[in-house]
Structures are given as structure tokens and as C-alpha cells.
Design goal:
This protein has 284 residues and is an alpha/beta fold. It has two domains: 58 residues, no CATH class; 195 residues, Vaccinia Virus protein VP39 (Rossmann fold). The strands form two sheets. The chain has a seven-stranded mixed β-sheet, with helices on both faces. The chain has a two-stranded antiparallel sheet with strand order 1-2. The protein contains eleven helices and nine strands. It is globular, with a radius of gyration of 21 Å.
Length: 284
Amino acid sequence: MTGTPLWNDLWRQTAGSIGDRTEARWLCETASSTAGPEFLGFKDEAATERMVRHLESMVARYRSGEPLQYVLGHWGFRRLDLAVDRRVLIPRPETELLVEVALEHLRGTGTGRRVVDLGTGSGAVGLALADELPLDSVEVWLADVDADALDVARANLAGIGRPAANVRIAEGTWFDALPAELRFDVIVSNPPYVAVGSSDLEHSVADWEPGTALFGGRDGLHHIRLIVAGAGARLLPRGSLIIEIGADQGAAVTSLFRGVGFVDLDLRGDPAGRDRVVAGRLPG
């Protein structure tokens, strides 16, 4: 890529280099600071040298095996476009189910609703809830032990507009991050749940995404046990705990919920039919 080629030519060359026309377009959009229809109206314009260098750098990173989401520096999650890098997990479509279940549980709680996203990472789950819940009388907490991850969450918080006024951020280990007096209508979490040494983990995930956000001990349940055990003391009566889980953890996590007194247990599958979310309520 030399001189000042047109973006249409760069798109074609990039697609030939990486083997995917759609992903090539996303790389070109990021390099040209355009998006969607805007890029299509821009594709017959000449690229600047800086833009070409940016594109070449992204293509090299992608060809080295770096996940596309990190190369682009952002990724879509429900209605949001979130900044992502190696400090946080890549938001995934199956995690959108976690948001959907949380919204179902929050619809019947009236005004003054308070929800916390434990282990928030990029802020995807909590910010999606803040974005989609009514603006009045809602308080969403984002909590994480990792200060670097919270820096990413803060950057994403700045991009959601008016709902950002309803969001609070806290740093610490699970419930210790939160003011002791707070009680919540809903606790939602996508905790580390991959078993150490799991053969099911894709190499690109293991090589690039933060291990502290992936691994949950020998059976993957270490952090889930801590959350389930502590949730009852931080929920309001009839409050809900909603957790994303691994595909083989449905029975075990449902048993953990039942063992500490949660009722109305609900095990949800993702679009591929794999166990993905467990939800339960405290008794009234």
C-alpha cells in the first residue's frame, strides 16, 4: 500500500490480504474514521499517508493472530459501541442474554431500582442496563477488582450519554467493592468461570484475553461460589441474582443457588442451546 490510493482499492487489497471482505471493511472504516454508510460515501476518496499507515498496522496485527475486536479497538454490544483492548474481555453475543434476563427481573421492581454488575470489565453488561432502563430512579453500579479494566469501563461510560448520570463505579473484590449499607434489586455478573486447564478454550482467547477474567479455579466455580454465598446479604427481599455460566455448569450452579435459599430458579440456554445463565430470587 503506497502513495495515496482510493479507499475502494484499499478495501479490495485488505480483503485479499485477510480473506474476508466484511472484516476488511471494518478495518478500513476504523482507519478512515468513518462508519457504515459514511464509509460507502467515502470509498472513492484518496487515503492520507497517516490513514494508510494505520490500516497497514491493523492488518499486520490481525494477521499475527490478534483478535479483530482488539485491533479495531471497539466492538458492538446490544445498542452500544464499546471500547475494548487487552485489559478486558471481548463482549460476546451470548452475554447479551445476561442483560435480557436482568431486564426481565427489573421490569417488575418499580421505581428506585438499584443494580450492580459485579466483575464489570469493559462495563458491557452494566452500561447496557443503564442504557436500556428508564432514566428515572435507576442506579447502576459497575464493580471490578482490576483498576485497568475499570479505566476501560470509565471510557465507555463517557460514551453512553444521559444514562451515565445513573452509573457509579467501585473498585474491589466482589461485594467488598460496594458500600456496606447498599442493597440491590438485581445483582448481575459474568464472572471468571473457565476451569484452569480447560481444553475447550480457544487458543486466541487464551493467548490474548486477560486470564484473571477467564479462569475460575480447577472446576471454574470458585468465583461463582463466592458470589452466590454473598449475594443474599446484599439483595433486597425478592431481589434477584443472575450469573453467566459455562456450558457444562448449569446443574452445579443451580444447586449452589438452591443451597443458599434462592427460589424461582431459571436456567437459560444461549442461541446455540448451551446452558448460559442462571437466575434466582430471594424469598419475600
